[in-house]
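[step 3/7] fold_predict: job queued, chain A
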Amino acid sequence: MKKSSKNLLNRRVVVCAVSATFGLTAMASASAETEVEDLKRELAAQRQLIDKLLAGQESQKQINSKVESQVAAAGKPSSMVTASGVTFGFYGIADVNVTSMNSGFGSKVTYGSGGFSSSRLGFTISKPINDDLKAVALGEAGLLYDTGTAGNASVTNGINNTSPSSGGQAGTGPQLFSRQMYAGLSGNFGTATIGRQYTGSYLAAVATGAAKGDGLFGYSGSITPLIGGMPTRLNNSIVYITPKVKGFYGYFTGTSGSENNVNAPTAVGTATTTDKAGRGYDLGIFYTNNAFNAALTTWNLNNASWASAGESGLANKTGWQFAANYDFGVIRLYGNVVSGTISGGNYENVSKTLSSAHAGSLSFLIPFGKHNFSATYTKLVDESILNKSANLVGVSYWYDLLKDAKLYVSYGKMQNNANATYSLADGGNLVGNVTKPGFDPSGVVAGVNFAF
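[step 4/7] structure written:
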């Protein structure tokens, strides 16, 4: 995350560009001539407002330690406006690409979004309460530039016994802020927030333990979080990040789970759930240094439900992970080891999927001026009855057109064993599902990615 302000001109350009985008959307039903005239008037008024807001802007400060710790996964604000003591920041990533992939039905060419990293649009808010305390908030929506889709599909609400809980909001609607949304307090004590948030385990997997863990074909973050049901984002969660002491800080997450308001096991289709579904925690200890960074994490959560036929209760998802990287100057090496189980309630003999498994990955990054070379190898070993193991390889290159704009190309291949059907994924494209056990999907993606 950037700690210093960009110049005033850059801020105006970015804010006006975002304003123009939303303005055009709102006036889609008007005639082209009317749209242009209305837009001119709207932008003129917005420029006047922005000039007033920026005139009294303070020197840029860090919004909160939580956003800083999530820089690899959440993006970085590049347009900041301060008014009446409240600092607003807007940021995003735009990614478009061409993909050629074979998932078992021949090579398919698509024009997509999210090859290098997922496209997104987000905001941050910071409001000082006193010299040592401030209120903070963040909302981040996932976007697809190829279809114009924002957010995820409809959310499945909790089970309620005729009385409202967190699932009591009318309608199901799209999950617009599907990537993250939280609010809380930050100060000398650390940062505490409540909402839909990343876990420390996921941040360790995609940032600490991987050269490029959130995109490009063959990235380890597409497969290592499967181990032990590693939580990535958790709804209904509280996160506490401790202050940093001699390079160490803690990242602790607790979740109330599905928040089902039931007083007995309740059938949902072919499954059964209770009021303890999804409840649990994720704990992480991080160490940061100029050359060496490491993380040790663990988690323990209840499954969301159990198969009514054969299982007797909620399985427990547990695991641990160690991730680290070291900068040798000409090359930076990354790696992580993950181990976990999903057990209890006869899950091991009915659902079975990854009831006991472990994985490890190694990757490197070689920056050479504006050129960047990276490669990743990941091995997943499934010790469940299903025996679905796989190896994942990826080779990538990207060129820095500007500081926040990149051209990239990446090749990846998933090597499934005779029982496995894992698909090849990148940062956010729609990829083909593998339906034939033992098929090895492979693909190439090339595109442009820029942050704003």
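[step 5/7] annotate
The longest strand covers residues 86-102.
Confidence is low (pLDDT under 50) at residues 1-36, 45-75.
exit 0
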